Predict the structure.
Amino acid sequence: MNLSFLIILPLLTALAILPFKELKQVRVIALIGSSLQFILSFALLYFYWTERSAGNTATMLFETNYTWYATLNINYHVGVDGISVAMVLLTSFIVIAGILVSWNVDKLSKEFFFLLLFLSVGAYGFFISLDLFTLFFFLEVAVIPKFLLIGIWGSGKKEYSAMKLALMLMGGSALVFVGLVGLYFNTNTGNGQHTFDIMQISGMNISPDVQKLFFPFAFVGFGIFGALFPFHTWVPDGHSSAPTAASMFLAGISMKLGGYGCLRVATFLMPDAAHQYSWIIIVLASIAIIYGAFATMMQTDLKYINAYSSVSHCGFVLLGIGMLTKTAITGAVMQMVSHGLMTALFFAGIGMIYDRTHTRQMNQLGGLMKVMPFISTVFVIAGLCSLGLPGFSGFVAEMTVFMGSWQNADAFYRIATIIACASIVVTAVYILRAVGKAIMGPLTPTLSMNGEGATDLRDAQWNEKWAAGLLIIGIVAIGIAPFWLNQLIGPGTEVIMQSIEKVALFK
Amino acid sequence: MVTVIIFLLLFIKLANKEWKNEGFLNFINLLLVINLGAGFFNIPTGNLFGDMFRTNELLTLEKNLLNLGVLIISLQSYHWLKNHKHAPEFYMLLLSTLLGMFFMISSNNLLMFYLGLELSTIPLAALANFDLDKRRSSEAAFKMIISSAFSSGLLLFGISMFYGSTGTLNFAELSTKLDGDPLQIFSFILLIAGFGFKISDVTFHLWTADVYEGSPVSVTSYLSVISKGAILFVMISVLYNVFAPMANTWYNMIFIISIATMIIGNLFALRQQNMKRFLAFSSIAQVGFILVGMAGQSVAGSSSVIFFILIYIFSNLGAFGVISLVSAITGKENMDDYKGFYKTNPLLTWVLAISLFSLAGIPPMAGFFGKFFLLLAGAGKGNYSLIIIAALNMVVSLYYYLKVIKYMFMDANENPIEKIKSNWQPKLAMAICVGGILVTGITSGAYDYIHSLFK
C-alpha cells in the first residue's frame, strides 16, 4: 500500500473545497474526504495485519523513499510500524469526528474546513515519516492552522491564546530543530555524508556525549507539544479558546505529535541520553500528573477542566516513556490513543452543551440529563473513561503504564508511580463533581431563559450522534479488547526496546 | 553580455519619444520579460576589459534572479507609475542601477567593483526622491545619499590600503597575496563596513528604516530585495574566493554581525506600526539569517544563500506587492489600516499571508526550506550556539509576522480598506510570487541547480 495516499487524500480534499462557497457544499466535501481517510486508515490496518501475519518481520512496512534534496541527503521517506498505524487510526477517528461536530460552522466555513484538513495533512505526514527532515516539515505544517483556527473561530481571549500557542509550539519546534541538526552532523553514512534517516541513525552508534548534548533539545522541544511541565501553559488557554473541532484536534492529535516525537526521535535515536535523563523526565511527568490534577479541581469552566486534565493525562505518556520498560512504553502509546479519543469525546460533549446553553460554567449548568439525554450520556462516558473506569480505554492504558513503571525496582521509580496512581483519586473527584453539577440534579432555571428558552436545549443532531458514536466505539473497543491494540503496537515497541536495552547491556 | 546589449537598447528607446504612460509601461514590461528570457540562453563564460570583467554560469544565474525581481517590481508599480509624470526617467534610473549591479557582480577587480557599486547607488538616491511632492521622500533621498557617500568613502579607503599592502586590485592576484597582516585586517574591516551599509546589517542599519519609509513603495522593495541581493551575491564571491586565506578572521566577524543583526532587527521590528518600516526591520533580521548561512563557509553555505535570496525575492516582493497596491490606490500604509482586511480583500490577504509565512519560515512555503538550509549550513562548522540563537530568533520573528496576520484575519475595523480592483499587471506579479513561494521549496530543482554551479 502506498502510504503517500494518507497525505495526498486530505490535501486533495482541502484543495477541492476551495472553489466552493456555500457551507452545505463545503461540509459535504469535507465529510466525504474524511470518510475516505477513515476507510483508508482501516485499509492500512488491514494490509498491515496481513503482512505481519504472513510473517513479514521488517521493522517498517510499506516504505517509500524518494530523494528530495540529494546534495544534503534529505529524503522523503515514509513507512509504518504498529505505533504509527495506531496513531494514524487515531487521527482518522478524530478528523471525521471533528468534521462532523463542525457541521454548522457558518462563519468563513470554507476556510475553517480547509484549515482542519490541512492540519490533518501535517498529522498524517508526521506519524508516517521516517526521515527527520520530513518529520520536522510536517510538524511545522500542523502549527499555523491551529493559530488561525483558534484566533478566528475561537471564543474568550482567543487572540492571546492563539498567539501564545503558536509561539510556544514554534519555540518547541525551534528546539527540535536544534536537536535534529545536531544529530544530523554527528551521523556518518560512510562516504562523508550526513543523514536524516531515522532507521539509518538508529543503526549507528551516536556517541553518548553527543546524545547528552542534543537529547534535551529534542525531548523538551517535543515535550512542549506534549504538555511537558513546566511548558504546559499553552494547553489550558489554547484548548479553552479553541472552537470545538480545533480543541479536539489539539488534544487528540497535536499533543500526540509531541508524545510520538519524544518516543520515536528522542528516546529511540538517543537511548544513552534517555537513560541519563530518565529521572528528570520522571520527576517532571509526575509533577505534571499531580499538578494537572489539582489544578483541574480549582476550575469551574468545563473546557478548562478538560484542558488541565489533559496536562495530567499527557503526563502519563511522558511518565511511561521515561520509565524505559517495554510495558511502560506500550502503556504510553496506549495512553496516547486512549487520551486522544477520550479528550476528543469530552470536548465534543462540552462543545454540544455550549452550543445550546451558551455557557461552560459548571455552576450555571445543571440537570442537563433531563433535556438532552444523549449529550449528557456522552459527557458521562467521557468522564468515566477519564477517571479510568474499567471497560473503557483509560483504565487499560493507565494500568499498563503503572505496571511498567513498577517493573523498575528502585525506590525512586516506585515513589513516582505511587504519586501518579494517587492522582487518579483526584481525577475521580473533579470528574464526578463536574458530572454531578452539570448533568444531574434539577434543571437550572436560568438555562431555559437563555436564547429562545427550553426549546433551544434540543438533544443531539444526527451528525453529533455519529461523531460521538464513533469515538465511543473506539474507546470501548480498546477498553474491552486491549490485546488488539497491544498486538498492533507490540513489534514497534520491541524495536525501541532493543535500542534501549542495547545501552543497558553496556553499562 | 546579452543583458548589457538589451539595456543599451532600452536607453535608446527611452530617449526617443514620449509615449502615453500605459502603453509605455506595457512595452517596457515586455522588454523586461525578453531580458529575463535572454538571460537563460547563451550563457557565456570568460573575461573582458583586460581581466576587469568576468562572467560564468553562476554569475549569470545571479543576474537572472535580479532581472526576475526587477520584472516583478516593474509589474507591481504599474498603478503608481500610471499617473506619474516621469515614468521613463524612473526606468532609466532603475535600469542604470541594475546595470551597476551587473558590473558589480561580474567584477574581477576591486576598482571595477567600486565603479559598479557607485553606479548602482547614486541613481537609487534619486529614485528614493521619486514621490516628488512629498517631503519625506526628499528626506529619505538625502539621508541615503549622505550615508552611502560615507560608506563609499570607507570602502574606497579600504580598497586603497589593500592596494598599498598587496600591490594589486585584481581578485585572483589579491587572494594569493593576502597573508592576514594587521593592515590587511584593518582594510578588510573597512570593506565589510562598506558592504554592511548596503545590506544594512547591524551597526550600519540606522539609515534603513527612514529611507524605506520615505521612499515610494516600489523603490523600497527595490532597495530591500534587489539591491541587498546584489551585494550579498558579491559578498559571497568576494569572501569565499578572494578572502579565503583570511577565512578565520572573517568567520568571527560574520558570526558576531549575524547574531547582532538578527537580534536587533527582530527587536525593532516588534514595535513597528508602519508596514514599510516593519518590512524594513524584518528585512534587517532576514539579512542576519543570511549571514548565518554565509558563516557556514561551505558549498552548502553559499548555495543556501543564493537559494534563500531567490526565495526572498518571491516572498518579500509578494508582501511589498500587496502593500504597494494598497498604498497606490488608497494611500494607506499603517498596520492598523490592515485590520479587517480579509473581509474586503480575501485574495490579497492570502497573498500577503503566504508571503509573510514564507518570510517567517513556515512550511510548506519556500521560506521554510530556505531558512532550514541556511541554518543547516551555519551549523556545518559545528557551531551550534549560532543556530540556537538563530532558531530562537525565528520564534521572535514569528510573533510580528503573526501580528499582521492577526490584524488582517481577526480584528474588526469600522472603515476597512475598500475592495481593491487592479489591472492584470500587479496580479501577474503576485501570481509569480505566490507560485514561486509554493513551488521553489517543495521541488528541489532550484537548489540542486544552484548547488551544481559551485564546483
User: Anything to note?
Assistant: DSSP finds 21 helices and two strands in chain A. The beta strands of chain A are 61-69, 74-80. Residues 451-455 of chain A have pLDDT under 50 and may be disordered. The interface with chain B takes residues 68-72, 133, 136-138, 140-141, 143-144, 147-148, 151-152, 158-159, 162-163, 166-167, 170-171, 174-175, 177-178, 181-182, 184-185, 213 of chain A (CB under 8 Å).
